[in-house]
Amino acid sequence: MKKLSIKIILTVGILWMAGAGMSYAGSDIAVKEPVFSFGSVTDGTQISHDFIISNPGDDVLSILRVGTSCRCTVADYPKTVAPGKTGIIHVKADTSGYGGRTFKRYIIIRTNVQGKESVKLQIEGIVQ
Predict the structure, then answer these.
(1) Would you give the distance in Å from CA 10 to the centre of its chain?
(2) Residues 128, 121: Cα–Cα separation, whole Å
(3) β-strand 118-127 against 35-41: which pairing, if any?
(4) Average of per-residue pLDDT across 30-52
(5) Beta partners for residue 86, in sequence order
(6) Cβ neighbours of residue 88 closer than 8 Å, sequence gap 6 or more
(7) What is the 3-state secondary structure (H, E, C) of 34-84?
(8) What SS3 state is found at 121?
(9) Pairwise CA distance, residues 26 & 127, whole Å
(10) What pLDDT, on a 0 to 100 scale, did the predictor assign at position 6?
(11) Bridge partner residues of 54 (DSSP)
């Protein structure tokens, strides 16, 4: 009886360790260029840029929310990206009032991807 108990415990332990090593690919997110530098612009210029995102995973990528670090920056985005497909996060920023300063804003993507629940993008440049 004691030998049978030990065999059961060992079998369960081996199965548990094997299962822990397995991973489910699920959805994923990749950004071609997460930082966009618009160079130098005149104060009051409207900046826009399209960030290309892709889903190299095998399940639907859900974009739960996209936030920006300033009200002067807004983003339009798809709610989902199918496996193997791409999507565009269109960002617009107003540089009014930033003359003579460096302009740096962040775009935060909230996703359903485990380990990448938050992805940061950036636009930057100099406003003259």
Answers:
(1) 41
(2) 23
(3) parallel
(4) 96
(5) 54
(6) 50, 51, 52, 53, 77, 78
(7) CEEEEEEECCCCEEEEEEEEECCCCCCEEEEEEEECCCCEEEECCCEECCC
(8) strand
(9) 41
(10) 65
(11) 30, 86
pTM: 0.78
Distance CA 47, CA 43 (A): 11
Q: Are strands 101-111 and 118-127 parallel, antiparallel or unpaired?
A: antiparallel
Q: Which pLDDT score is estimated for 25?
A: 74
Q: Which tokens go with 19?
A: 């299962």
Indicate the Cα dihedral angle 53, 58, 64, 66, nearest 10°. -10
Report the pLDDT value the prediction gives residue 22, as an integer from 0 to 100. Answer: 44
The answer to whether 83 and 58 are in contact (CB under 8 A) is yes
Q: Locate tokens 């909230």: which residue?
A: 110
pLDDT tens readout for residues 63-84: 999 999 999 999 999 999 999 9
Q: Spell 38-66 as b/e; 16+ CB within 10 A means b.
A: beebeeebebebebebbbebeeebbbeeb
